[in-house]
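Recall that a protein's primary structure is simply its ordered list of amino acids. Everything else, from secondary elements to tertiary packing, is in principle encoded there. The following example makes that idea concrete.
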Amino acid sequence: MIVIARKWGLMCNQIFTMAHAMAAALECGTSVLNPAFKDYSMNFIHLKDDPLCRFPARNPLPVLSTWAAGLFRTPGAYVSDLIPRYHLSTRVARTIPVGWHDECRLDSEQTRGYISRTWILILDGWQFKAPTWFEKHSEAIRGFFAPLPELEARAAAATSRARDGCDVLVGMHIRQGDYKQHLDGKYFYETSAYARLMRKASMLFAGKKVGFLVCSNAKQDAAEFQGLHWSIGDGQMVADLYSLAKCDYIIGPPSTFSQWASFYGKVPLCIVRESNQTLSADQFRIFDTTMSHV
């Protein structure tokens, strides 16, 4: 069993961690337990009734499972510290700790051995990756993270409104809010910079009317987008995420949010690393495991 007992980052960081763990579980014939994802699980069909956030999906458990989920989330996180500190790794339990900027390959010979020989393998970090397995099992991963029908409907409604009167729909992920502090504001761009990028993007599709679906974690001033054909997103985080996945293209700063939308919807993504970045058609790629999460 692979256990993710601690939260690292926000929703899409956690989704990618679980997705790679799921790919490893499918390859190695085991399961995943991710009670750390409980804060977001109510948004997804296969997780909403399971406080333990298990893969493969299981039938809902009694209310006692909520207590069990808390047991894994709190003491489980402490156990993940104690095992390596006191050299307690055994065939029963083992922790793989990975720092924020480090990476662990789940498909390495050593880690695969841990998965097959250890009853409980605790992953403590977020950059756990198994690129080949992730690609192999990508459809199963997409299916498992399907949103609730009502959120899917809200996402569809937002993109339908945005598509009205345009030939090409570009999802504009404006990540502000928390990005003022993230990496000392390295990827925080003012709304005016995003509007300039939108005008540049409009020029990439000669002879076509380009529309934009703006999804943001901060309130936007409509005056900034004057002259553009645009629509604001639903505003609910998961509805916005899956509406971006329904666009024809996505533009946004380095963020697992837009990267998941690109992967899930198979939508070409342009990652903006500078506010004055020049846009070109070859910068748009569907996010896959050959691309960095940062």
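The chain has two domains: 2-144, 149-286. Residues 149-286 form a domain with the Rossmann fold fold (CATH 3.40.50.11350).
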